[in-house]
């Protein structure tokens, strides 16, 4: 985990970390409180029943994830599912457009046969956001 710097974390940032109940997760920051607690929408969690819910975490227990991870079609499909679960129509439309553009740019990747720029066939997003990462 990186040292806490409140200027580094913002609402909407993707983070990995541990909740106040010691659950490992990946999600995005939904809100930040003055008392130092951050509310995160969980997209992956070691307790699968918590996926899609909000959890609280301390900033020093979070690691900001790189912003350039959303180019992978599989990742976009997963985020589209989150948008549907959270009923965020605007985000759903944005992600669907990005997925269509990514599939048009990399047709072989659209059917899951490979990721451009990745020697192992898995993009950094897929390696990082693998459910095995949480165990």
Automatic annotation (TrEMBL):
Residues 110-121 have a biased composition (Polar residues). Residues 103-125 are annotated as: Disordered. It comes from the Bacteria. This is IDEAL domain-containing protein. It comes from Paenibacillus mucilaginosus 3016.
């Amino acid at each position: 985990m990186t040292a806490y710097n409140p200027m580094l974390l913002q609402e909407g940032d993707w983070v990995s970390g541990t909740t106040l109940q010691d659950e490992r997760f990946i999600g995005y920051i939904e809100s930040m409180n003055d008392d130092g607690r951050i509310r995160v929408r969980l997209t992956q969690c070691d307790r699968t029943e918590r996926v899609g819910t909000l959890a609280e975490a301390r900033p020093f227990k979070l690691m900001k994830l790189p912003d350039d991870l959303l180019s992978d079609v599989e990742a976009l499909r997963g985020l589209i599912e989150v948008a549907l679960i959270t009923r965020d129509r605007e985000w759903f439309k944005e992600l669907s457009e990005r997925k269509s553009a990514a599939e048009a740019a990399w047709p072989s990747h659209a059917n899951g046969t490979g990721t451009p720029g990745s020697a192992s066939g898995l993009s950094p997003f897929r390696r990082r956001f693998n459910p095995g990462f949480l165990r």
